[in-house]
Write a structure and sequence with these properties.
By secondary structure, this protein is mainly α. It is 74% helix and 0% strand. It has a domain of 210 residues. The two termini are 22 Å apart. Its main location: membrane.
């Protein structure tokens, strides 16, 4: 646990830690409770009607009140606000926010130039008819890895997949599940996704190291999933209408971002180069107007507004909870619970299970994998440090298990978007996101079998 920079460590009440997690519980209650209530009322995308940055404000107010109540001697509101602001301005939080903005800019400009359509169409041209479901999974995985967003991927691929549904005698829910599963795969692996950025920055890991660590979990799960889809496809042959492919060079920026990021080039430089190259290739080889680049970049910034604000506010809330002993209390309880089931003392394997459980259960509550990672990042880092778990591994566990939960919650944005596009129930979608189910089994086996 980090030391307070204000010199008020001694003001924390020794029995305050349990109460100090109340702000986090309040945030989850407001965020999830509002979604449940609106869903019952029949509101579409009910769990996303109340923006998370707004839902967390009452939690911050409660944390500020507790900061004064739990201390052994009076604390001025100014001092509590100083802790809040220091948490919001933490260098990791600010770095994370800047990367969010650049990632949004790249994704917006690259999409505006037509690169996404090019990559989708090229992929469909080379898919044999019996492998249409496996192919949609792979295309979704590729696009999500390049774009860094599962939602953007589903939005691009799902309408095309709906058109294929009419040519196959396969349950549309299976096809929808393949698209969502591939999007989750790519979002989990992408070097520019907000989950990757959040997990590496909170754990102090390198992007490329976390990428290679994730491959240990993701590749076996993906191969098993593809085998299942191929089996179904060969027993239910499909016909794919030929699609016209525009200039293939418009997809170059996506490839460049992946290569440079894997090479370990600074993420700021990667995203800047990707954005510039997207605009230039679109203008020189397509019909993109360079005069629109400023507007498209700002659109990308705007798309990241919610996660930008939430990251800063979560950073402030975490700092208050840390000072009040809440994060330490949470770590202790999670360890106790995991040890009850493992019947062992604290060990690398036990703490890895604890980190995974923390990410998974938190994401079930908030239905947003990035939010879950940001909320649990400090706690996961402390659990990792207790048993000398490498930052890349704790970052990978956070990302993998939050993404598993995200793909399986029917009130998550991915399931809701796919359900709306295919005209089916979100429950039908998540029941067929086989990749996340297989990834959960593979990940548990890997954690248990790997040596520290």
């Amino acid at each position: 646990m980090s030391e307070s920079t204000n010199g008020f460590d001694e003001l924390t009440h020794p029995n305050s830690s349990g109460l100090a997690i109340l702000p986090l519980l309040l945030f989850v209650l407001i965020f999830l409770g509002t979604g449940v209530w609106l869903h019952i009322q029949g509101v579409e995308f009910a769990f996303y009607q109340l923006p998370a940055p707004v839902a967390i404000i009452p939690a911050i107010i409660l944390a500020l009140c507790l900061d004064k109540y739990l201390a052994s001697r009076p604390i001025k509101l100014e001092n509590s606000l100083t802790s809040l602001i220091e948490g919001m301005g933490n260098d990791k939080v600010i770095t994370m926010c800047l990367i969010y903005l650049l990632a949004g800019a790249f994704s917006s400009v690259a999409q505006a130039t037509g690169g996404v359509d090019v990559m989708v169409n090229i992929g469909l041209q080379f898919i044999p008819a019996p492998l249409v479901i496996a192919g949609l999974f792979l295309i979704s995985a590729l696009i999500a890895t390049a774009m860094g967003t599962s939602m953007g991927t589903i939005g691009a691929i799902a309408p095309i997949a709906v058109g294929i549904v009419g040519n196959v005698s396969i349950d549309p829910a299976i096809i929808a599940g393949a698209v969502v599963g591939g999007a989750i795969f790519g979002d989990n692996l992408s070097l520019i996704s907000d989950t990757t950025i959040a997990s590496t920055k909170t754990q102090g890991a390198e992007l490329k190291d976390k990428f290679y660590e994730n491959l240990i979990f993701a590749i076996p799960a993906a191969l098993i999933c593809i085998a299942f889809y191929a089996f179904i496809g060969f027993n239910n042959p499909a016909e794919i209408t030929s699609l016209e492919v525009s200039n293939v060079w418009l997809g170059l920026p996506y490839l460049l971002v992946i290569i440079l990021a894997v090479m370990g080039v600074n993420v700021f430089l990667v995203l800047l180069l990707g954005t510039v190259l997207s605009a230039l290739t679109g203008a020189l080889l397509g019909d993109y107007q360079l005069s629109l680049v400023g507007k498209d970049i700002f659109t990308g910034f705007s798309n990241m507004q919610e996660i930008f604000l939430l990251s800063m506010l979560i950073g402030g809330l975490s700092e208050l909870m840390k000072r009040q002993g809440g994060l330490g209390y949470l770590v202790g309880k999670i360890n106790q619970l995991v040890q009850v089931f493992s019947k062992k003392s604290s060990s690398s394997s036990t703490n890895q299970v604890a980190i995974a459980s923390l990410a998974f259960t938190t994401n079930l509550a908030v239905a947003n994998n990035t939010v879950a990672i940001i909320v649990t990042g400090d706690t996961a880092k402390q659990l990792a440090q207790e048993c000398s778990i490498e930052p890349k591994r704790s970052a990978s566990l956070l990302d993998v298990f939050s993404c598993i939960a995200q793909g399986l919650v029917p009130y998550g944005a991915q399931a809701l978007l796919a359900a709306a596009t295919f005209g089916i129930s979100p429950l039908d979608v998540v029941a067929n996101v086989w990749y996340c189910m297989i990834l959960a089994v593979v990940s548990i086996v890997v954690v248990k079998l790997r040596k520290s």
